[in-house]
Amino acid sequence: MGTYTLLEAVRTHQVRYHHISTDEVYGDLDLDDPARFTETTAYNPSSPYSSTKAGSDLLVRAWVRSFGVAATISNCSNNYGPYQHIEKFIPRQITNVLTGVRPKLYGDGRNIRDWIHVDDHNDAVWTIIDRGQIGETYLIGADGEVDNRTVVETILELLDHPTDAFDFVTDRPGHDRRYAIDSTRLRTELGWQPTYLDFRAGIAATIDWYRTNTDWWQPTKNAVEQKSPPPNASSADTTPVRVVAGSQGRRIRWIIDRGQIGETYLIGADGEVDNRTVVETILELLDHPTDAFDFVTDRPGHDRRYAIDSTRLRTELGWQPTYLDFRAGIAATIDWYRTNTDWWQPTKNAVEQKYATTERVIG
């Protein structure tokens, strides 16, 4: 709702908008995978947080295409630096050590994040606002891949503590293994470069800031640490979930009965038909001239073509469509609406009045 509200305000007042997002929308990478996220990496969020962020990114893209909103998007890697809330990983570990509490490390500590100083992030955002191309996405990163254990050990060393003075705790459910940003586009097209390239020096400066600004974070420290710990990874919700894309009925039942937990299946019946042919078929079956229709102004952002490849559903689960004759299916659908006017007639006028405000006959 927040992104929607902002987009509608921007649309109303016709002002420039920049949407700041996260690299978490791309899911995670294997620890030994040489790949890094780019602007063309497919979205694959793995947590409720990253899923909502991915949804907000898509809203921005839709408002750019459908309504011409002047917006850009950036997806940034993990930030560190001054004024970061102490529930976040680096300030939490720093303030733990400063208050005599042993740092906590989830799982095996090998999870990798691509760290960037907050000042570099801010500078990159302003670069995009000033020079970025409307409707485009830019990834922000500073080549700062470091695993969580190394981060904790660096903090301990810089604070003159033994580097093994930390505790392993149960891992978070769905804890992504590795994020890595390829910010080539931002650097080559817009000329941006990060300033904080020495991660150890950046952590040292961050430690100094938290050491000299205890009045800023200390009042909330106890509340953060007393907050309920995350559930044990082994007790995470294991409710079976299957994602279904397509229509209802027998096809969905087929997936519920035979589908693999956690998997997605596309449902389609090879029924590609253009809208004009659909209208002409309906008119013909209702004994009207096939040219008895009007062209109206197009909808903003009207998608040109959808097409489903349902090979996986058919080969893995053995499903096959029954209604292969589109014309016969339309004829049966017409008969249903003809004999069920009580179901649709009460809402027909309201629907047509809504369309009347946006549709204008051409020619």
Can I get a quick summary?
By secondary structure, this protein is mainly α. It folds into two domains: 2-235, Rossmann fold; 243-356, no CATH class.
Provide a descriptive summary of the structure in words:
The chain has 363 residues and is mainly alpha-helical. It has two domains: 2-235, NAD(P)-binding Rossmann-like Domain (Rossmann fold, 3-Layer(aba) Sandwich), CATH 3.40.50; 243-356, no CATH class. The protein is 44% helix and 10% strand. The chain is built from 13 helices and eleven strands. The strands form five sheets. A three-stranded parallel β-sheet has the order 1-2-7, with helices on both faces. It has a two-stranded parallel sheet with strand order 3-6. A two-stranded parallel sheet has the order 4-9. Helix 1 runs parallel beside helix 2 (48-67) and helix 3 (89-98) packs across helix 7. The longest helix is centred in the N-terminal third of the chain and has 20 residues, at 48-67. Residues 230-247 have low confidence and may be disordered.
